[in-house]
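Hi, here's the filled form for the chain we discussed.

Project: internal
Contact: R.S.
Residues: 247
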Amino acid sequence: MTLIAAHRGGAELWPENSPTAFRNAAKLAVEFIEFDVHVSRDGKLVVHHDATLDRMTDGRGAIMDLDWADIAATSIRGAGGERPPLLDEVIDIFKPTAIDLRLEIKLNAKAAPYPGIEQAVADALAAAGMLERTVVSAFSLDTLDRFRAVATPGRGVIWLINPMTLRHIGGIQGAIRLAKAAEVPELSPRSPDVDRAMLQAANAAGLRLGAYAVNDLATIRRMLDLGVAAFTSDRPDRALAERAKRA
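And the returned structure, exactly as it came back:
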């Protein structure tokens, strides 16, 4: 069965990565909740997609340059005054549910790793008893390598591959070569890049293949027809309904 993750909590249904989105997604029959983690200047693990606050809040600036007090004073656009949540707060919403975590470790506003983010995330998950219920994803193989140097997520790791990177490394065969060398078991390219030949090549190499940006009904149907391992969707309700019809 193809597993479904509510992307940023369901970004086409509710304000992305907001407490409202997470509370509503917790009521769905998805297997995973997907979200992103950055680090504030004073070391707080902030759940927010962009490296800056500008697009999704009434605040401005890079998360890496702001203390948590500054971030906590901002409001997410369209979320009724809610501020960006901390990782611990997202964990608290999903720990009592059957939904596991799909946590993406992000780079900072300079496209560089946050120093120590992997250890900080691992410690927070372990303290909450959620490490075994987490899959860690990243667009950087180095990020995944650093995370596995300090902890082993129970649901494994996923390498996210954007279209430019996929072309640069020579398509699926290049991705397979790099994933095997890094001992990464699952690849997740953007959905338009995923086809049956790619799936067969990955599976033949002993790797799982998923997809991201699976939002419209045609793309949802295509990914379910292919039988990809998992996908993230901004419309998890739509994806769940289509999967249920096929069951």
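Let me know if anything looks off before we file it.
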